[in-house]
Amino acid sequence: MRGKNAITFGFYGKLSAAALVFSLLTALSACGVKGAPLPPKENKPPQAVNVSAVSHDGRVHISWLLPAVVDPQFKPVAFQVVRNEWPDADPSPETVKKSILADIEAPEAEPGSEASRMVFIDELLTKGRFYQYVISSYDSEKRFSDPFVIERFEMRYPMDKITGLKVSSIEGSVRLAWNPPPQQSMEQLKSVMDSMKNGGNLDLEKLKESSEALPDSERFYVNVYRAMGKDGQFSRSPINSKPLEANEFEDSDAQPGKTWRYKVCAVRIDAGGMQLEGPLGLEVSAEITDHTPPPAPLIISAEAVDGGIKLRWKPVEDKSLLGYWLERRIDGKFSDVSGFLTVDEFTDRKIPAAVPGVFVYRVVVRDQAGNSAVSAEQTVEYAPQKESDKNSDAALPAENTAPTQQQSDAVPLEKK
Fold first, then answer.
1. Which fold would CATH assign to domain 166-183+219-287?
2. Is pTM beyond 0.90 here?
């Protein structure tokens, strides 16, 4: 392959020896340490990323994330969703019906973050027909990205409901278990549907043969959905990151101390990657118990500031963290001086004015289940500046305001 600095000797065949040597030296002088290759320059907006599609109860849920942008002039401003529809398995361009379903404005969010997720739900689907979706971004000049294609799939009959759903609450999470989903092929389902139409005459031998010849692409998995409280809506997307092969699932992300409702459904993964879900089955509920207190806070600094004492502590890592409260010992017992906090610092300005003394603090942390932990006590010696000192300092000439050697060597605020 010919590079930028490549020399085609055939082109220089009639040059003199001196000219040829000069040309070689010139080319070699341009050679140095090879740098990292530059990324290809964009000439169109980037594709959508993390695209997923799930068919559920006759609807298709499509979601994607905002892609990173190399060249700002090609920054996506919107995403277009196109649906191609065929009446049967023949992908003929003569029978396809193309529909532009939506133009969704791109959110102002960090590319690739959960806040940048966009969702589209298509409800106008007919069982037995074939569908394909195309997601494209476009910029302010209406230049389109390369399309992201969700491969053709057939809107099939729903699978059987999952049975035997059981729930149990363990410390900090909920555990679900269910009966294995029936591994039925499309041929079996059609046989059942046809037998219903023909008065119930079902060819059991043929049904058995289709079951034994079940391909991997026809295997059934399980998705889990969750809702909070008695009247909460079930999540639009399954809470499991991918369809489950196992017959159990542990939910450790739900907030402790609240009641959660669960449903599960069978899901078949199409050859093109589409998740085709059956109807949701029985509903169960459980309250996540949590009796484990969060880690105790650690106070890392306490210092006198103008008009108060400022304390900082190390943030507590706990998935059910609620917040912090700073307490000061008053009349022999600790009392709240900060109120509810979600930050890791607070300045106590409620200390008695112009009264020196020793103050004792502690930080209390609580989680959403009501468990709490307390930091070690922090003693702080506070000596407020007298008003006369402030006035005398203000009256000093500018050249005399520098600290003396004795002042600069003063011992800082004692911390115990």
1. Immunoglobulin-like (2.60.40)
2. no
